[in-house]
Write a structure and sequence with these properties.
Layout (H helix, E strand, L loop, with lengths): L2 H24 L4 H23 L3 E2 L2 E2 L5 H15 L5 H18 L9
Antiparallel strand pairs: 1-2
Helix pairs in contact: 2-3, 2-4
């Protein structure tokens, strides 16, 4: 085989391998699953904040939150952006941490200050 043919074949193989690696890197999970995780994390984060902080006082001011409808959309978009580069495993680990924190935050319900 001529040197030019070998170079062309190796270049083609490198292109195919590069394309496969890029495809695997870019598509971490289906969009529907990713958005579902982001919404779930937004709801948990909102509930954690409300459990831990609502009714607490900072100086003279009492912490109150706007209705959930207003805060969830902002949190959802925040979690979409924050988790954009994470893998499914990393997102699932973060969700497990948030679920544990949500369980722990329930002890603050009804207290004036944590």
């Amino acid at each position: 085989m001529k040197t030019g043919h070998k170079i062309a074949i190796l270049g083609g193989l490198a292109g195919v391998v590069g394309s496969v690696v890029r495809w695997r890197w870019m598509i971490r999970m289906p969009l529907k699953e990713f958005t579902r995780y982001a919404l779930y994390m937004a709801v948990m984060d909102d509930e954690i904040c409300r459990n831990e902080l609502e009714g607490s006082q900072i100086g003279d001011k009492t912490i109150t939150f706007p209705p959930k409808v207003e805060t969830l959309q902002e949190r959802y978009h925040l979690f979409l952006q924050m988790n954009r580069a994470k893998s499914r495993r990393q997102i699932q680990e973060k969700i497990m941490e948030m679920e544990q924190r949500l369980r722990e935050s329930r002890q603050y319900i009804g207290l004036d200050q944590p």
